[in-house]
Amino acid sequence: MTNIIDDELFDINTVCTIRGHTCVKFGCGAINTFKEDFAKLQKGYKITTVGVITGKSSYKSCGAWDVVKPALDELNIKVLLYDKVKTNPSKKMVNEALELFREDKPQYLISIGGGSPTDTAKVISVLLEFPKKTMEDFYNGEFSPLAEERVPLFVINTTAGTGTEIDQFAVVSDLEFNPPMKPIFVTEAIYPTHAINDPNLLLSVPKGLTLYTGVDALNHAMEACSTVTRSPFSYDLAIRVSHLVHKYLPIALKEPENKTARYWLHYAACIAGISFDNGLLHMTHSLEHSLAAFDPKIPHGLGLAVLQPSVLKRTYAALPKIMAKFLLPFDQTLEGKPEEAEKAACILEKWLMSIGITEKIKDLGFTEKDIPKLVESVYKTPPMSTLLSIAPFPIDKDVVAEVYKEAMTPLSKK
């Protein structure tokens, strides 16, 4: 197959700048630009205190803290550290961090980690500016701040999947709600100002996290190029993501210290974030968020993977030519005909199994008896109904239930 991604033309050790709402320093060694860039920010924002949001240990094990902490010390900046963020961050974590930061309000926030610390930091960045506002104001959809109304955020991204370092979305679960929900918050106020994507920080990422974040990026691309709000821009980026993930995710899983594979997966995740920031998402993410709301231990990418083939089957039937192009790296025999939908879904499912995702919904602890509560959660979680409405095929509660049921077991064995 012709190499349409031209990956051999780029030096992974050359740090470049990707500009949009967020200024991203990208490339191996990009972390070393932190001190100089933050010193410039310090002068403009008169920074004396920063709030750092991260997980328990990965910010140290990846090497980022070895650069960030000495730089902040040299700049005489006080650090308030919240290091309790876990997978699928919750309202409780946001409230804990807010309590810490509101005592001595930082002028800037820094997140170190993947999607969970960054999403937590995004929400905190706004709530710090509005002491009387709570997470409930976000959940109720009654609070949409302006871009200027937030504490600015600098993201040091240590996974390759979410794209949250470059988009206007954040996810924080409310496990106390009935049913539990994992809503998406959307506002330009939570775009990070700066980010670092350094593939060197990914070399110690565990195999499972590499796998699930790579699948997350692939799902972002598949949905962004197939919504009714898609554009040539979201489509072009998504096609490139498909080629990059197909080529480099298996390599990164076998060779975790392969910097070239990490570089291109980091890039794929970033442009997938830009793709769905423009084209938005539809069914796979809407249904996954309910799975994770009932069991926050389910990795986001795994939840997506168990659903993706069934969603692809319906998406392919609606947009066969687009989906055939998207699946070109996975299979070159697809002709872009609606009747190939089942075949296309099985092709993707078999590829997911080949890289290590053999689970389906039943393996995550759910049964068909759980489907009604999952469907209820989908329709009670903002803004999932809106996302479902922009899918390329009609969706109602019966269709949602049908996808959950179909995804209980492998398509290829039906």
TrEMBL record:
Residues 210-408 form the Fe-containing alcohol dehydrogenase-like C-terminal domain. InterPro entries: ADH_Fe/GldA (IPR001670), ADH_Fe_C (IPR056798), ADH_Fe_CS (IPR018211), Alcohol_dehydrogenase_Fe (IPR039697). It comes from the Eukaryota. Residues 24-199 form the Alcohol dehydrogenase iron-type/glycerol dehydrogenase GldA domain. It holds the Pfam family Fe-ADH. Keywords: NAD, Oxidoreductase. SUPFAM superfamilies: Dehydroquinate synthase-like (SSF56796). Belongs to the iron-containing alcohol dehydrogenase family. This is Alcohol dehydrogenase 4. It comes from Anaeramoeba flamelloides.
